[in-house]
Structure formats: structure tokens, C-alpha cells
Amino acid sequence: MKTVFVTVGTTSFDELIESITSPETVQALTARGYERLVLQVGRGSLVPAADSCPHVTLEAYRFKDSIAEDIEQADLVISHAGAGSCLESLGAGKSLLVVVNDKLMNNHQLEMARQLHMDSHLLYCTCSTLSETLRAMDLSVLQPFFARTAQELCTFPR
């Protein structure tokens, strides 16, 4: 079953959970053949019910000791722009779509997502452009990510 795994890490990012479960976004996912949606919702106030998204199998949880198995089982990972979630997904060789929380002040996450996108390792968007990005995305353009040193990761061009 073709699976999308969505993670917000330890944060609260209800806007992403609302966006991914919207009828428009679910339609974009099913049009691409995705049948299963696994949501890690973190500290958010929204935990969608299993029957809230017609045409996909939906599972939602707050936290697990490790999300490695969910990442491994996913055909596509959609993540907040947290460094840990991004690097774990890329390190597992998964196609990654990062959804930047454009409501954050001094958004360093956008810098990281933009640089990794420029290096062709991931695609990124915001909640308002998620459905459109899913409809138009071409995952074949993504290049494998080879782990870099922490020093290299912390010196993105500004």
C-alpha cells in the first residue's frame, strides 16, 4: 500500500495536519496513488479520527520512541522543517517534501529547507501551497543525500 508519512516532530503544527487532511490535499494524494496516510501529530491539538479522510487509510499518533519504522515504510515523507526529521528522512533515502511553518519568527528552518532544495535533496512548500505542490511535484529530480559533517550543515550560505 503506497504510504505517506507526515511528521511534525515534538512541536505543534496543527496547520500542517489540517492541510494534509483537507479534501483537496487528500484528492491530490490519491491522484498520485497514495492509499495510506500516517500522521505523527506531536503536541498539536488536532488528532484526526481514522475515518476522517475518505479514500485513504488514516493512522494518527502523538509520539513514539522512534519514527524510523514509519519513515522506512513510507514512499513519501512530508515533514516540518526540523533538522532532525529532515536529516533522518533523507538519511533513510526517502523522498521528502518539507512544509515550512511560515508563521515562525526568524525562520532558520526555511534557510535549511531552501538550501537542501537547491541541492536537489528535497522539495518544500508552505501549508497554503501543499495541495498544489503535491499535484505538480516531480520526485524523480531528487538526488540522494549523503550525510555531511555537522560543521558543513551549520554553514549554509546566507
Automatic annotation (TrEMBL):
Broad class of where this protein is predominantly found: endoplasmic reticulum
Gene3D superfamilies in UniProt: Glycogen Phosphorylase B
Keywords associated with the record: Endoplasmic reticulum, Glycosyltransferase, Transferase
Primary enzyme class: transferase
The keyword Glycosyltransferase is annotated on this UniProt entry: yes
Top-level taxon of the source organism: Eukaryota
GO molecular function: N-acetylglucosaminyldiphosphodolichol N-acetylglucosaminyltransferase activity
Residue span(s) of domain Glycosyl transferase family 28 C-terminal: 3-145
Alphabetized Pfam families for the sequence: Glyco_tran_28_C (PF04101)
Localization of this protein: Endoplasmic reticulum
EC id: 2.4.1.141
GO cellular component terms listed in the entry, alphabetical order: endoplasmic reticulum
Family: Belongs to the glycosyltransferase 28 family.
Name of protein: UDP-N-acetylglucosamine transferase subunit ALG13
Gene source species: Pagothenia borchgrevinki (Bald rockcod)
